[in-house]
Amino acid sequence: xxxxxxxxxxxxxxxxxxxxxxxxxxxxxxxxxxxxxxxxxxxxxxxxxxxxxxxxxxxxxxxxxxxxxxxxxxxxxxxxxxxxxxxxxxxxxxxxxxxxxxxxxxxxxxxxxxxxxxxxxxxxxxxxxxxxxxxxxxxxxxxxxxxxxxxxxxxxxxxxxxxxxxxxxxxxxxxxxxxxxxxxxxxxxxxxxxxxxxxx
Length: 200
What we know:
By secondary structure, this protein is α+β, with helices and mostly antiparallel strands. It has helices at about 30-45, 80-85, 135-150, 155-160, 175-195, and strands at about 5-15, 20-25, 50-55, 60, 70-75, 90-95, 100-110, 120-125.
């Protein structure tokens, strides 16, 4: 089996200190739609809001059928390799236009992957991403303050809203690895099914 070409990506959730980040290995044959799925899995988002990528002056996401002149290119039609070939080394990924979570994705390296590894693969990361619908950066700051202080007037309400305690330093690595691995397994199964469907 030949090793496929893989890009190592560093994903940072912008404007938050200490930094919330992930590092993943992604096959360059992945579409930007798959990259969206990988970012969601790696960061711990729940994939329930609109999103898009920006690279230079181009945007990639889900085109608006009502407004086709929006200039949005279908993410499922563009491979990561196409951006790498254009020497794009940085993308901006925005998730949830209300809370406006912006991520900077940097292409750190591109090269042959390991032949016995199913990609994408979670490599490393630090800190848990904010809860969905927390109210963007200001809401997240208030949420962290209230959750850290049992005497805070909103502590009990927000703990109940979140569903329990919140540890910003715990990324839930086991869950994250499994979520990214599930995409790799789906991709591998799809490739095998495609190969079997081809005539001899």
